[in-house]
Amino acid sequence: MVKFTAEELRAIMDKKNNIRNMSVIAHVDHGKSTLTDSLVAAAGIIAQEVAGDVRMTDTRADEAERGITIKSTGISLYYEMTAESLKNYKGERDGNEYLINLIDSPGHVDFSSEVTAALRITDGALVVVDCIEGVCVQTETVLRQALGERIRPVLTVNKMDRCFLELQVEGEEAYQTFSRVIENANVIMATYEDKLLGDVQVYPEKGTVAFSAGLHGWAFTLTNFAKMYASKFGVDESKMMERLWGENFFDPATKKWTTKNTGSATCKRGFVQFCYEPIKQIINTCMNDQKDKLWPMLQKLNVTMKADEKELVGKALMKRVMQTWLPASTALLEMMIFHLPSPAKAQKYRVENLYEGPLDDIYATAIRNCDPEGPLMLYVSKMIPASDKGRFFAFGRVFSGKVATGMKVRIMGPNYVPGQKKDLYVKSVQRTVIWMGKKQESVEDVPCGNTVAMVGLDQFITKNATLTNEKEVDACPIRAMKFSVSPVVRVAVQCKVASDLPKLVEGLKRLAKRFGALDLRPPALTWLLICVRECSISMKSRILLWLASSGPRRREHLLRRTCVAFALRSVMLFFMLMPFTGVVARSFQLPGGSSMLLSSRPSQGCWSQCTLWRSRLLRMHLVVSTVF
């Protein structure tokens, strides 16, 4: 049962210190969407028993078919934290209620543009890494994207269940594996030195690293175990956390801590002794169905199971026990609240990256202060298809002011130039809504520091835009996004029936709205096939399309005779540098004056004649054709 209402969500939106805007980023198949289910379940949107199997943020049919996230999905979650869990929180807060605006983003390299759109409107990132596979190529790509946007990261080492159930990894080996994963992530983070952002590296002993098993819905930080053992050893929690990581060893025989392994059979690393082995013992007891040993162990841990849960066996029992003992939502929420910034804090150092105008004008000042009474500054990062075919929600983030239903806004598109009217519109927002995964909740207005979806602007926004108040004519736009991938695959599309051409053109226009990085040139084959499918679906009436075979993009250039030798040397160099990329070069001397004709900028009157000449020359003299 959902534990909050739209009214409660709207009320907490005014408490900007209690808001966290965050993205979940990772390499493909490292468990982002599965782990996100635990957070969704804690808010009551799905049942705890099915968390990890539903993948609530994968809302499309093809995402379920392929088993990967294709489009980034936003969801607003309301949590009421206990006073005990917040007793060590030193930041500013207004009560115990928190709003998490979470965006689950794709991990496949083909869909990097969706990650870019998600990062622009968030302030923090939960980086998910498979504990066995470690930091992969796309992990590094999305992490660099996040740091480039001044997004503060926290890390979770996921799929820990593989260590116990699949690989049977011993404690010390597991510690060394986890340590390498964290070190590799920190190597990437250390390359970004930003005085305003500060140190962005993650450390388990500081609570910025979690260890999780998203499929089974459990996770922990060293804080969880430090609280358990602090009273037992009579030490401070922070000191206990330091002992649970790094070169700290404990010998139960002597009951002493050392910084070196003494060689004794009972002397083990703190993490292994107090974190890894207790979890391993609980899991093995559940999997071996040794309930006579399990119940006393759970009683010592103050874990209470329901009567029907005690009847479970094997993996189902293990999953329920671990969810009850170490719920993933508790560990991840505490880590996000304690270590990710609120909008009020993040916008102070992000304004330089965001605003294109002078950093001392009223608009930059309003963004920096996250001022709800300031002028509206809102950035639309993506367009989301509505249930009505051909219509879209404009999804973005309010950086200052408020956006309200019926409000007239000034829309500055990506081609807008201050002082000109190009790509500039003044229109009314028909409706403002909160995005809830597969559902939307209408609200009267949305203040700064929050994500929002708007109805009625899709006719005037192609991909992204900056919105401000109708009368704020001096406002400069928020800086356009930079995508990390470029289009490298092309395919020709045409109608099998010529009369369907207007429908195809309309479908392509809708497609351009739907895919932020698409310039009708998608970046990879998987993305391209999805685009073609979306183009067909978005048309109000289906039409038959003919597709040419896909291939890499090519660029042609015609050279004069004196340049041919240089061109061929360049081609040979290209072969040596890129052995897996094919390049074909053929050189002929062009007729006199033809290179001048083709390189000069023709007037509008002779454009058709020039095109004809170019076509004839290319048929006769293919000079250089390279793959880019």
Rough outline: elongated
Give the rounded overall mean pLDDT. 77
Strand order in the sheet with the most strands: 15-14-20-11-12-19-16-17
Structural class: alpha+beta
Gyration radius (Cα, Å) is: 28 Å
How many strands in all? 27
Number of helices: 20
End-to-end C-alpha gap: 53 Å
Percent range of helical residues: 25-40%
Spans of at least 5 consecutive residues whose pLDDT stays below 50 are 520-525, 558-585, 617-628
Biggest sheet layout? 8 strands, antiparallel
What does it look like?
The protein has 628 residues and is of the alpha+beta class. It is built from 20 helices and 27 strands. An eight-stranded antiparallel β-sheet has the order 15-14-20-11-12-19-16-17. Helix 7 (171-190) packs across helix 10. The longest helix has 20 residues, at 171-190. The two termini are 53 Å apart. Residues 17-344 form the Tr-type G domain. One of its GO terms (cellular component) is cytosol. GO terms for molecular function: GTP binding; GTPase activity; ribosome binding; translation elongation factor activity.
Task: Write a brief structural summary.
This protein is α+β, with helices and mostly antiparallel strands and 628 residues long. The protein has 20 helices and 27 strands.
